[in-house]
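## Example pair
The file below holds two records. Each record gives the amino-acid sequence first, followed by its structure token line.
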Amino acid sequence: MRKIIIDTDPGIDDAIAILLALSAKKELDVLALTTVNGNVDVEKVTKNACKILEVAGRTDIPVYKGNDKPLVRARINCEEFHGDDGLGNAGAEDSEKEIETEHAVDFLIRKAEEEKGELTLVPIGPLTNIAQAVQKDSGFVKNIQEVVIMGGAEHGGNMSPHAEFNFWTDPEAAKIVFQAGFRKITMIGLDATSDVFLSPTLRELLYLINTPISRFIHKMTRVYADGHWEIEKKLGCELCDVLTIAYLLDSSVAETVDAYVDVETSGLCDGASVVYRTFYYPDKKQNCKVAVSADTKKFFEIFFGYLFPEYREFALREL
């Protein structure tokens, strides 16, 4: 069983990613959620993390609050896609779960030391907490087995022509993480997540399944789907962060290439992840695997197979 910590800024797709991870009880041991400013401010995302665990019936999992702003920049949020509360206005404020007193960065450092070489980090928000752990503890990097990141893009962004939201929010942090020397990093960016789009039909199926979790996802994704229509004129919504968990469960869900990744921190391309595929740039030393596409059918097999297994075949008929 793989031991993971999800570093997150819930966020609708973050919430669904967490729910998927918690459903994979035999494969993933979710040790904790650590939170970071991103889709909404850190106070809201921390409450949201608690709410998600309550919906999943997993309040035994601790939540650690992290950084409330990027390393060197002003705070940025994304309410237009995620709603005022970050969960599509699904009511996270009523969570009663207590938050741990230890800061997320200190917890990450401590837990990495305790689990030496056994821990996979799954950052699906801005990389502020991970970068600060790198800066604060010289042994942190070598104590981590793997980092699977949702962020970046090889070809085109969603906040600028070049930059994806998580990297654009804190590019200095992203740059630190890619240059830190982690033994294994996988970047699940927009090139791959564009292949995992929740259609209106599959979203309606979630409503009809009529469990607390399926209705929670359906309710949250109303605002998310509306945002995709208003901004992109697309029907449905992209499940960006969820692909990271699907990849942990079955790496064949995404095609990856070996690459050296750097992050731009100024100018017209501020926040862009610059991907040097090592096949074309052999002078660059690989520091990452980059997901370039995803298998849509396999993704939804995983998604419904773990969360709603009795409805898996119904879902696959619609693909």
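Second record, same layout:
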Amino acid sequence: MNKYESIIIINPSVEEQGVKALIKKFSDLINKDGKVESVEELGKKRLAYEIKKNKEGYYVLFNFEAKPSEISELERNYKITDEIIKFIVIKKEN
């Protein structure tokens, strides 16, 4: 298994319970065949440029281990989740 880092930007209009639910959803998805090492809620920040008419976003950072085949499934779930306005998954060097 490889180590990865993923940052998601959640729509700022999502309430705190919604943010917690999204974090749990993606943590459970990663833990199905991998292992979440840490989740950092970085809070609301101003975006460098507007994304989907939003000037702010709620940032969440996941550090995890997973098989390379699981990343495409994780990214697919990010794409179909309406509350997520932007995401990135990066493979860390061992």
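Notes on the second record: The beta strands are 2-10, 35-51, 54-66, 84-91. The CA atoms of residues 31 and 85 lie 23 Å apart.
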